[in-house]
Structures are given as structure tokens and as C-alpha cells.
């Protein structure tokens, strides 16, 4: 039987112990690691072999940092993330799916977790398609304030072009390009081109946003 390897990310040691015991009783599930802090989770994601993450949406007192941690983990490996929470807030649910989570389960419904893990691992196609479309819409939502010229510049920056390369490709004067870049950065609420690309890639999710 193929084992589905699970990583737990949860700040409550008692919950980790209970959930590990509960999941390991299933013949096809195996908890291969547990992290209690966002940095520890990201570090484990870079070194462990696992298929599904059970992610507590509130890992510290700074807010919904499980959401930001999910984004960071998905940048490292294409795993499935299921958010666990004690909150039933529609805005939080939307944030979770924006981050790339494939499911969102309240902790009181923990008996549903084994089935959710299997579904995420074995039948991902439909949710993957929805998440790709959601990601595309979030990208366009962030970029809709840009003019056609600013969007053209942004797309080239995202592709890795330098300022001098963009000047030559678009036949723009240095002053004109700098002006367009500055306007683009202001509209996106960032201070540099690198921050702009990162913010759009992460679908507008940022640490500052979580701590609100």
C-alpha cells in the first residue's frame, strides 16, 4: 500500500501528539515530521520528503501566519496544503485558498482529516484547476491599476529583463522608463521592482497583511 506522507505544522504540542497518533492509525497515512514555528516548517519543507501539509492557520500571536508559511512552502515544493483552524471566517477561508491551500477544515471536524488528505493526494486535478484560475484572477486584480505601458514594463521586469534591456526593447528614454517604473511601484504599494514581482507572485499576500 502506498503511504501518504504528512507534515504537521501546529504550535500546540498536545494537538501535534494527538493528531500524529490519530493519523498514524490509518494504514495509508504516516506523519513524517512536525513543526511548531513558521521558520521550522519552511526549513523542514526544504529537507523532508512529504506529500501533504496540515497547517494551523495561526502559528504565533502575529496573526494568520500559517497563510504566509503556506506560500513559502509552495514556493519550495508542489505539495498539497490543508488548513486547520478554529476560526469559521469567510475572509480567512478566502485568504487560505489565495495562499494555495486545497482545503480548509475546522479543528472540531478533525475526523474528516484522513479523507481530506487522501482526496488532496489522489484526486487533485479539479482543485488544481480552480486554484490556477484563482491565482490568475488574483494576479490580474493586482495589475489592473497599471496602464498598458506600465503593464508592459512590469511583464518584462517579471521575465528578468534589466532596466537597460527594457529601454532597448521598448525604445524608451531612461527618464521615461524610470517614471513609468515609479508609477507602477506606487500603484502596487512597493518600493522596488523585486518587491513588485514578489508581491504579485504571492498573490498580494504579505507579512504586513497578516498581522492586521
Please report the distance between the alpha carbons of the first and last residues: 45 Å
Q: What low-confidence regions span 5 or more consecutive residues with pLDDT below 50?
A: 208-212
Which series of helices and strands comes N to C?
EHEHEHEHEHHHHHHH
The count of helical stretches stands at 11
User: Roughly how many Å is the radius of gyration?
Assistant: 20 Å
Structural class by secondary-structure content? alpha/beta
Q: Could you describe the largest sheet, including whether it forms a barrel?
A: 5 strands, parallel
Q: Give the overall average pLDDT.
A: 88
User: What fraction, in percent, of the residue positions are helical?
Assistant: 55-70%
DSSP summary, beta strand count: 5
- What fraction of the residues are assigned to beta strands by DSSP? 5-15%
Q: What is the strand arrangement across the widest sheet? A: 2-1-3-4-5
Oligomer category: single chain
**So what's the overall shape?**
elongated
Amino acid at each position: 500500500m502506498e503511504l501518504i506522507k504528512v507534515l504537521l505544522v501546529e504550535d500546540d504540542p498536545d494537538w501535534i501528539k494527538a493528531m500524529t497518533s490519530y493519523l498514524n492509525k490509518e494504514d495509508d497515512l504516516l506523519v513524517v515530521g512536525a513543526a511548531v514555528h513558521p521558520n521550522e516548517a519552511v526549513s523542514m519543507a526544504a529537507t523532508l520528503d512529504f506529500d501533504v501539509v496540515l497547517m494551523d492557520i495561526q502559528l504565533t500571536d502575529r496573526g494568520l501566519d500559517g497563510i504566509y508559511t503556506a506560500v513559502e512552502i509552495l514556493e519550495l515544493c508542489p505539495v498539497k496544503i490543508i488548513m486547520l483552524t478554529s476560526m469559521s471566517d469567510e475572509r480567512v477561508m478566502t485568504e487560505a485558498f489565495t495562499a494555495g491551500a486545497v482545503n480548509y477544515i475546522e479543528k472540531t471536524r478533525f475526523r474528516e482529516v484522513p479523507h481530506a488528505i487522501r482526496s488532496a493526494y489522489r484526486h487533485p486535478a479539479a482543485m488544481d484547476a480552480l486554484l490556477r484560475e484563482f491565482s490568475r484572477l488574483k494576479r490580474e486584480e493586482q495589475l489592473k491599476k497599471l496602464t498598458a505601458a506600465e503593464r508592459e514594463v512590469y511583464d518584462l521586469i517579471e521575465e528578468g529583463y534589466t532596466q537597460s534591456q527594457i529601454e532597448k526593447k521598448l525604445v524608451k528614454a531612461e527618464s521615461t522608463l524610470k517614471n513609468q517604473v515609479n508609477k507602477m511601484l506606487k500603484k502596487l504599494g512597493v518600493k522596488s521592482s523585486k518587491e513588485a514581482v514578489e508581491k504579485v507572485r504571492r498573490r498580494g499576500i504579505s507579512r504586513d497583511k497578516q498581522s492586521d
